[in-house]
Amino acid sequence: MTYKQSNNDFFSYQGTINRKDYAINMLIVIALLIGISLVRFDSFAPYIRPEFLYKVLMFMVNLFQFVMLMSAISLVYRRIADFSILKSTTFIAWMKKIFFILFVFPVLYLFCFRFFIDIIPILQNIIDILVIFLLAPIGLITMIILVFIKGN
Protein backbone atom coordinates (compact mmCIF):
# COMPACT_ATOMS: atom_id res chain seq x y z
CA MET A 1 0.00 0.00 0.00
CA THR A 2 1.34 3.41 -0.89
CA TYR A 3 1.30 6.41 1.37
CA LYS A 4 -1.54 8.10 -0.51
CA GLN A 5 -3.98 5.19 -0.69
CA SER A 6 -7.00 5.25 1.58
CA ASN A 7 -7.06 2.66 4.34
CA ASN A 8 -9.97 1.87 6.68
CA ASP A 9 -8.17 -0.55 9.03
CA PHE A 10 -8.14 -0.01 12.77
CA PHE A 11 -4.50 -0.94 13.39
CA SER A 12 -2.62 0.37 10.38
CA TYR A 13 -0.27 3.31 10.09
CA GLN A 14 -0.09 3.13 6.29
CA GLY A 15 -2.14 5.19 3.89
CA THR A 16 -4.76 7.80 4.66
CA ILE A 17 -8.33 7.85 5.93
CA ASN A 18 -11.17 10.10 4.83
CA ARG A 19 -13.35 12.13 7.18
CA LYS A 20 -16.36 9.80 7.20
CA ASP A 21 -14.37 6.63 7.90
CA TYR A 22 -12.31 8.47 10.53
CA ALA A 23 -15.46 9.65 12.34
CA ILE A 24 -17.09 6.20 12.26
CA ASN A 25 -13.97 4.35 13.39
CA MET A 26 -13.23 6.91 16.11
CA LEU A 27 -16.80 6.62 17.44
CA ILE A 28 -16.41 2.84 17.60
CA VAL A 29 -13.10 3.08 19.45
CA ILE A 30 -14.40 5.71 21.88
CA ALA A 31 -17.57 3.70 22.54
CA LEU A 32 -15.46 0.63 23.36
CA LEU A 33 -13.19 2.65 25.66
CA ILE A 34 -16.12 4.24 27.47
CA GLY A 35 -17.90 0.89 27.73
CA ILE A 36 -14.89 -0.87 29.22
CA SER A 37 -14.30 1.98 31.67
CA LEU A 38 -17.90 1.86 32.92
CA VAL A 39 -17.66 -1.80 33.96
CA ARG A 40 -16.69 -2.18 37.61
CA PHE A 41 -14.31 -5.11 37.56
CA ASP A 42 -13.52 -4.78 41.24
CA SER A 43 -17.05 -6.00 41.99
CA PHE A 44 -16.08 -9.34 40.42
CA ALA A 45 -13.15 -9.79 42.83
CA PRO A 46 -15.10 -11.61 45.59
CA TYR A 47 -16.50 -14.10 43.07
CA ILE A 48 -13.16 -14.97 41.50
CA ARG A 49 -11.59 -17.23 44.08
CA PRO A 50 -7.95 -17.44 43.05
CA GLU A 51 -6.66 -13.90 43.24
CA PHE A 52 -4.38 -14.72 40.34
CA LEU A 53 -7.38 -14.96 37.98
CA TYR A 54 -8.54 -11.51 39.02
CA LYS A 55 -5.08 -10.11 38.27
CA VAL A 56 -5.14 -11.81 34.87
CA LEU A 57 -8.56 -10.28 34.19
CA MET A 58 -7.33 -6.81 35.12
CA PHE A 59 -4.24 -7.26 32.94
CA MET A 60 -6.44 -8.23 30.00
CA VAL A 61 -8.68 -5.19 30.55
CA ASN A 62 -5.66 -2.87 30.67
CA LEU A 63 -4.23 -4.52 27.57
CA PHE A 64 -7.55 -4.02 25.76
CA GLN A 65 -7.56 -0.34 26.75
CA PHE A 66 -4.00 0.03 25.47
CA VAL A 67 -4.85 -1.64 22.16
CA MET A 68 -7.89 0.61 21.70
CA LEU A 69 -5.80 3.71 22.43
CA MET A 70 -3.19 2.58 19.92
CA SER A 71 -6.00 2.08 17.41
CA ALA A 72 -7.18 5.64 18.04
CA ILE A 73 -3.63 6.89 17.57
CA SER A 74 -3.37 5.06 14.24
CA LEU A 75 -6.64 6.67 13.12
CA VAL A 76 -5.34 10.11 14.02
CA TYR A 77 -2.02 9.44 12.27
CA ARG A 78 -3.74 8.44 9.04
CA ARG A 79 -6.11 11.42 9.26
CA ILE A 80 -3.13 13.76 9.62
CA ALA A 81 -1.50 12.01 6.65
CA ASP A 82 -4.69 12.61 4.63
CA PHE A 83 -4.67 16.37 4.88
CA SER A 84 -0.84 16.65 4.81
CA ILE A 85 -0.28 15.01 1.41
CA LEU A 86 0.22 18.14 -0.67
CA LYS A 87 1.70 20.31 2.08
CA SER A 88 5.32 21.35 2.51
CA THR A 89 7.89 19.20 4.28
CA THR A 90 8.14 21.67 7.17
CA PHE A 91 4.38 21.39 7.72
CA ILE A 92 4.62 17.60 7.74
CA ALA A 93 7.55 17.73 10.18
CA TRP A 94 5.59 20.02 12.52
CA MET A 95 2.54 17.77 12.32
CA LYS A 96 4.66 14.75 13.25
CA LYS A 97 6.02 16.59 16.29
CA ILE A 98 2.55 17.72 17.35
CA PHE A 99 1.23 14.20 16.81
CA PHE A 100 3.91 12.73 19.06
CA ILE A 101 3.42 15.33 21.82
CA LEU A 102 -0.39 15.26 21.86
CA PHE A 103 -1.11 11.59 21.20
CA VAL A 104 1.84 9.22 21.53
CA PHE A 105 3.56 10.67 24.60
CA PRO A 106 0.47 10.71 26.89
CA VAL A 107 -0.42 7.09 26.06
CA LEU A 108 3.14 5.84 26.47
CA TYR A 109 3.56 7.80 29.68
CA LEU A 110 0.34 6.58 31.29
CA PHE A 111 0.82 2.94 30.30
CA CYS A 112 4.62 2.51 30.37
CA PHE A 113 6.83 5.32 31.64
CA ARG A 114 4.78 6.26 34.71
CA PHE A 115 5.76 3.08 36.53
CA PHE A 116 9.47 3.72 36.02
CA ILE A 117 9.42 7.35 37.11
CA ASP A 118 7.76 6.73 40.49
CA ILE A 119 11.14 6.90 42.20
CA ILE A 120 10.95 10.70 41.73
CA PRO A 121 7.45 11.55 43.04
CA ILE A 122 7.66 15.31 42.39
CA LEU A 123 8.54 14.77 38.73
CA GLN A 124 5.81 12.15 38.43
CA ASN A 125 3.22 14.55 39.86
CA ILE A 126 4.29 17.36 37.52
CA ILE A 127 4.10 15.12 34.45
CA ASP A 128 0.75 13.68 35.63
CA ILE A 129 -0.71 17.17 35.84
CA LEU A 130 0.75 18.08 32.47
CA VAL A 131 -0.61 14.96 30.75
CA ILE A 132 -4.01 14.74 32.40
CA PHE A 133 -5.00 18.39 32.56
CA LEU A 134 -3.21 19.84 29.54
CA LEU A 135 -2.30 17.31 26.86
CA ALA A 136 -5.31 14.98 27.16
CA PRO A 137 -8.00 17.69 26.71
CA ILE A 138 -6.07 19.32 23.87
CA GLY A 139 -5.67 15.90 22.24
CA LEU A 140 -9.39 15.17 22.54
CA ILE A 141 -10.30 18.53 21.04
CA THR A 142 -7.80 17.93 18.23
CA MET A 143 -9.37 14.53 17.51
CA ILE A 144 -12.75 16.24 17.08
CA ILE A 145 -11.30 19.00 14.90
CA LEU A 146 -9.69 16.42 12.59
CA VAL A 147 -13.18 15.32 11.53
CA PHE A 148 -13.86 18.73 10.00
CA ILE A 149 -10.53 19.34 8.21
CA LYS A 150 -10.93 18.59 4.54
CA GLY A 151 -8.35 16.19 3.11
CA ASN A 152 -7.01 15.94 -0.40
Description:
The chain has 152 residues and is an all-alpha fold. 68% of the residues lie in helices and 0% in strands. It has four helices and no strands. It has helices at 19-38, 51-83, 89-111, 121-148. Helix 1 runs antiparallel to helix 2 and helix 3 packs across helix 4. The longest helix is centred in the middle third of the chain and has 33 residues, at 51-83. It is globular, with a radius of gyration of 18 Å. The protein starts with 18 loop residues before the first helix and ends with a helix. The mean pLDDT is 86.
Percent of residues in beta strands: under 5%
The chain-level mean pLDDT equals 86
Number of helical segments with 4 or more residues: 4
Distance linking N and C termini:
17 Å
Morphology: globular
Poorly predicted spans: none
**Secondary structure tally: strands:** 0
> Considering DSSP H and I runs of 4 or more, what fraction of the residues is helical?
55-70%
Keywords:
about 150 residues, mainly alpha, about 70% helix
Set out the fold topology.
Elements: H1 19-38, H2 51-83, H3 89-111, H4 121-148
Helix pairs in contact: 1-2, 2-3, 3-4
